[in-house]
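[step 3/7] inverse_fold.run input=structure_tokens len=357
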């Protein structure tokens, strides 16, 4: 997931791509083995507004350790799918001298709230140190552009490798092993581990995923298909399009669309998306006061059945109780173009972004 949109190019080929949470950078990364070049000194971590699972850490306190800095945010599906590897490496190589640091740099406003991050870290069972980078000071110090972004730092405090986006886990683990060996650790066999994750953290199926991350807030939204023109920062009644195309989305009911999210002004109201992917997620938050908001999910007009995600029943029923990413669809069978609908039965829900996998 991107804070900024940038253009990519490769030598000899003009490739222009808008980078989003989907790890398009992996197209460039997978073609080469990990490089252990000197990319400069590790920045200071003084921009953190607080720390979880540890006392404050600094460059000086980390000298003599191999450090993996993972810049992430808890509503980003790419960050979440990478977490099982981070947790495994933190445990496997701790005694050999590795320190994994999760730098939590938020994208949405609710991710700046320490209470929300603390709960997410507990729920996700993240036990390694987490820096609260709510003002993105550490993000800027690394000159970072991506979620997730991993920086591999040697025992002398030098950045020796980086990786943007999810994937390439064997190469990343071999980089850790090389840096530990440089620091005098003995790697028993040089083998890399494997992870079997479930739920939201399960690996995506990119072979048959044709839907891009899509924002509901007007700052970055695309492919909005309701017949009514998108009204900014004001209540507006919306309806469905006659013949939506793949990857178009629309609203029905009364909504107030702001820069970050679309907010349901009066219940009921629906968000729909014509998608092609195994998984569909939606970043949602309840109204002020955290009152639960009920919803019903339909796929092609029917309850999802065995295609339901972890945050909805087979009958399509669920609730928004906290601000986070909700897994609403996980299809077990053939992937086809389908129409997703989520109807909210209570007002005040904030809808931020669709992601797929």
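[step 3/7] decode complete -> sequence:
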């Amino acid at each position: 997931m991107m804070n900024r949109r940038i253009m990519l190019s490769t030598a000899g080929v003009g490739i222009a791509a808008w980078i989003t949470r989907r790890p398009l950078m992996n197209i460039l990364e997978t073609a080469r083995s990990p490089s252990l070049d000197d990319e400069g000194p590790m920045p200071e971590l003084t921009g953190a507004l607080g720390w979880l699972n540890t006392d404050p850490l600094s460059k000086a306190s980390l000298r003599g350790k191999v450090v993996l800095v993972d810049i992430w945010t808890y509503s980003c599906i790419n960050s979440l799918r990478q977490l099982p590897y981070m947790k495994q490496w933190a445990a496997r190589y701790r005694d050999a001298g590795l320190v994994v640091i999760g730098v939590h740099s938020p994208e949405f406003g609710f991710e700046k709230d320490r209470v929300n991050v603390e709960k997410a870290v507990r729920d996700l069972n993240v036990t390694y140190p987490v820096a609260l980078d709510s003002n993105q000071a550490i993000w800027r110090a690394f000159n970072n552009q991506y979620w997730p972004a991993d920086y591999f730092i040697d025992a002398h405090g030098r950045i020796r490798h980086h990786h943007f986006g999810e994937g390439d886990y064997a190469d990343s683990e071999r980089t850790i092993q090389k840096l530990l060996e440089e620091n005098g650790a003995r790697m028993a066999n040089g083998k890399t581990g494997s992870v079997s994750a479930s739920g939201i953290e399960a690996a995506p199926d990119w072979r048959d995923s044709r839907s891009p991350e899509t924002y509901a807030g007007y700052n970055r939204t695309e492919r909005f298909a309701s017949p009514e023109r998108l009204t900014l920062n004001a209540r507006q009644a919306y309806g469905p399009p006659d013949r939506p195309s793949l990857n178009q989305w629309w609203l029905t009911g009364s909504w107030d669309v702001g820069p970050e999210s679309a907010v349901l002004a009066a219940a009921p109201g629906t968000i729909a998306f014509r998608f092609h992917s195994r998984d569909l997620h939606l970043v949602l938050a309840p109204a002020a006061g955290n009152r639960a908001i009920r919803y019903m999910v339909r796929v092609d007009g029917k309850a999802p059945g065995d295609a339901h995600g972890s945050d909805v029943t087979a009958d399509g029923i669920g609730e928004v109780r906290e601000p986070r990413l909700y897994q609403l669809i996980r299809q077990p069978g053939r992937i086809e173009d389908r129409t997703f609908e989520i109807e909210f039965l209570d007002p005040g829900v904030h809808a931020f972004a669709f992601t797929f996998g």
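[step 4/7] annotate
The radius of gyration is 21 Å.
The mean pLDDT is 90.
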